[in-house]
Amino acid sequence: MTGTPPAAAASQPCRDDLTPRIFRALYAEFDLRTVDGAIHVVVPRGTPWFAGHSLGEIARQISDYEQARRDRQPDAGAADPA
């Protein structure tokens, strides 16, 4: 049977995972974040970071983060169990 070979199936282009993997290997003390697939944010490992489409959205994230931190702190007025 002769003819044209079947067309290659259309697929998504491969994600380039190598570059971020190399970055993370070289700079293990930093967290690498990618926002909307276009902007990279790098902060020291464990540092909280906030991103949003508006300053109001970011303000809510910060408020929620601060509230969660306050909720995790032991009560300063509580008696120390002996």
Q: What does this protein structure show overall?
A:
There is one protein chain. By secondary structure, the chain is of the alpha+beta class. The protein has a domain at 18-72. It has 2 helices and 2 strands. It has a two-stranded antiparallel ribbon with strand order 1-2. Strand 1 (30-35) and strand 2 form a beta hairpin. The longest helix has 18 residues, at 55-72. The protein starts with 17 loop residues before the first helix and ends in a 10-residue tail after the last helix. The model has no long low-confidence stretch (mean pLDDT 82).
Helix content: 25-40%
**Sheet having the most strands:** 2 strands, antiparallel
Structural category is alpha+beta
Q: Shape, please? A: extended
The number of helices is 2
User: Roughly what fraction of the amino acids lie in strands?
Assistant: 5-15%
Distance between the termini: 88 Å
Whole-number mean pLDDT: 82
What series of H and E elements makes up the topology? Answer: HEEH
Kindly report the spatial arrangement of strands forming the biggest sheet. Answer: 1-2
> How many strand segments?
2
Low-pLDDT regions: none
What is the CA-atom radius of gyration, in angstroms? 23 Å
Features:
single chain; 82 residues; alpha+beta; two-stranded antiparallel ribbon; 2 helices; 2 strands; extended
